[in-house]
TrEMBL record:
PANTHER family in UniProt: 1,2-PHENYLACETYL-COA EPOXIDASE, SUBUNIT E, NADH OXIDOREDUCTASE HCR
Name listed for the protein in its UniProt record: Ferredoxin reductase family protein
Membrane protein topology class: Multi-pass membrane protein
Domain FAD-binding FR-type: 226-328
Transmembrane segments: 23-40, 52-75, 96-118, 138-158, 170-189, 201-220
Source organism (scientific name): Amycolatopsis heterodermiae
Length: 463
């Protein structure tokens, strides 16, 4: 028996180097420690006694500024950082650092105002007004603070649920504005910014790195890739009620470092609203030799409804590829895929691209009814020709517990069902894609079934 190879032309990337992740985390902590060291060298500790509020305000302001720049770097789409973490984990870390940064910024404003009010022997409100209206760069810093607060408010879970993806994406661009407006204040009135040559070099380098990353990876790289590959819509095919696949043709796709399981942020030049990007995964293994790609979209709102109206020849602009739900994170030969609804798209592509022997790959495909099963014919062909085992999970989910199984399994623990269907599940790499609650239930079941954490791979698109 011979190993089934990936389809010809599939652009598998080299595995992610583990030390990239460690290096990124180390740089983050070292930058914070260095900022604290700069504060100490500027008599921060000595001043805590006689001028506690001002000295503590300096420290919170410095750490807040450092974390703000780290936020920008996290979401600058730097390829090796994105490949190490994946966009969903980067988004979670971005939110954590963001909320910490905005909290420290608020503490900085309060502490500095209290410190200056005590020194000037004035009221707090009057001192704040004086700081904002008379100190160099403070009006700009105030506007930047308002922008950052707006970004923080729209990042709260309740706000994210109310806002469309495109609106959240647009609002978060104000974080760049907030970071830029803070710079004049630090230059003109921030003594710690210019207290020593070392401090000046550090802060200028940090701002230059953040700005450079945005210019190169958020602007320059997408412009260059779109000019190079020139993707256009070839055809639009209806897959199921409210679901369409868009076939795109381009140039030199063999030079695009992409793999099955990844997604792009797409913009289609078909009329008003084209500037609002929307993420869609590849739903077929990249046909780089034929210079063709396929994405599949479900009608979940105005942004995801747009592909159904596309016409052949429409120009498509893309950012990416993004995501680490690829073969590069795979640990062993056996695969267990869990997909719900439109979450089948990246897993369908992976099942076509990844090598596995007959019987080594199993797919759990969740849908409410038969008509909602996407790529049924293609998956059945994979089962017939490559030995893929498929379990279609149809029907309403249990309302009594958080489960990824239909309600007819409600009397049996999820991990028991999983072990019965896949006795050696702990030896499989588990790939999961679907709605957040469903994905969480699968991940919990995999953990309880004994699957090692480094063999569980998921990518959520709630960011």
């Amino acid at each position: 028996m011979t190993t089934t190879l990936a389809p010809p032309g599939s652009a598998l990337r080299r595995p992610v180097r583990v030390w990239w992740r460690d290096a990124a985390g180390l740089v983050t902590w070292l930058s914070v420690l260095f900022v604290v060291a700069l504060w100490v060298s500027g008599r921060g500790l000595q001043d805590l006694g006689p001028d506690f509020f001002t000295s503590a305000g300096r420290l919170t302001g410095l750490v807040s500024a450092d974390l703000l720049l780290l936020q920008v770097l996290l979401m600058a789409r730097i390829p090796w950082v994105e490949r190490s973490y994946g966009q969903d984990e980067l988004a979670r870390r971005h939110r954590l650092i963001g909320f910490t940064s905005i909290t420290l910024l608020a503490a900085h404003i309060v502490l500095i105002s209290l410190g200056y009010a005590a020194t000037d022997r004035s009221g707090l409100v009057g001192e704040v007004w004086t700081l904002v209206t008379t100190y160099a760069g403070m009006l700009l810093a105030t506007a930047g603070t308002v922008a950052l607060v707006m970004v923080a408010v729209t990042s709260v879970r309740a706000s994210r649920r109310r806002l469309r993806y495109e609106s959240r994406h647009l609002l978060h661009l104000y974080a760049y504005l907030g970071a830029g407006l803070a710079l004049p204040h630090q230059l003109w009135t921030g003594a710690d910014f210019t207290a020593s040559p070392v401090a000046t070099v550090f802060w200028w380098s940090a701002y230059a790195a953040a700005a450079g990353a945005v210019l190169v990876f958020r602007l320059g790289r997408p412009i260059w890739l779109n000019a190079r590959h020139h993707l256009v819509v070839e055809q639009v095919v209806r897959e199921a009620p409210g679901v369409v696949s868009v076939y795109l043709r381009g140039r030199h796709l063999d030079r695009l470092p992409l793999a099955a399981g990844q997604f792009f942020v797409w913009r289609f030049l078909d009329g008003p609203g084209w500037t609002r990007g929307k993420p869609f995964s590849l739903s077929a293994a990249p046909d780089v030799t034929g210079d063709r790609l396929r994405i599949t979209a479900k009608d979940l709102g105005p942004g995801s409804r747009r592909p159904a109206r596309l016409r052949p020849g429409t120009r498509a602009l893309f950012e990416g590829p993004y995501g680490r739900l690829t073969g590069t994170v795979r640990k062993g030969p056996k695969l267990a895929m869990f997909a719900s609804g439109i979450g089948i798209t990246p897993l369908r592509a992976l099942l076509a691209e990844l090598p596995y022997l007959p019987g080594e790959a199993v797919l759990f495909h969740r849908a409410g009814r038969h008509a909602d099963l996407l790529f049924r014919r293609e998956l059945d062909e994979l089962a017939a020709h490559r030995g893929l085992r498929i379990h279609y999970l149809l029907g309403r989910r249990s309302r009594d517990r958080a489960s990824w199984l239909p309600e007819n399994y409600a009397r049996v623990p999820d991990e028991q069902v999983l072990r019965h269907l896949v006795p050696d599940i702990a030896e499989h790499d588990v790939y999961v894609c679907g709605p957040d609650a469903w994905t969480a239930a699968v991940l919990d079941t995999a953990r309880r079934a004994g699957v090692p954490a480094d063999r569980v791979h998921s990518e959520r698109f709630g960011w």
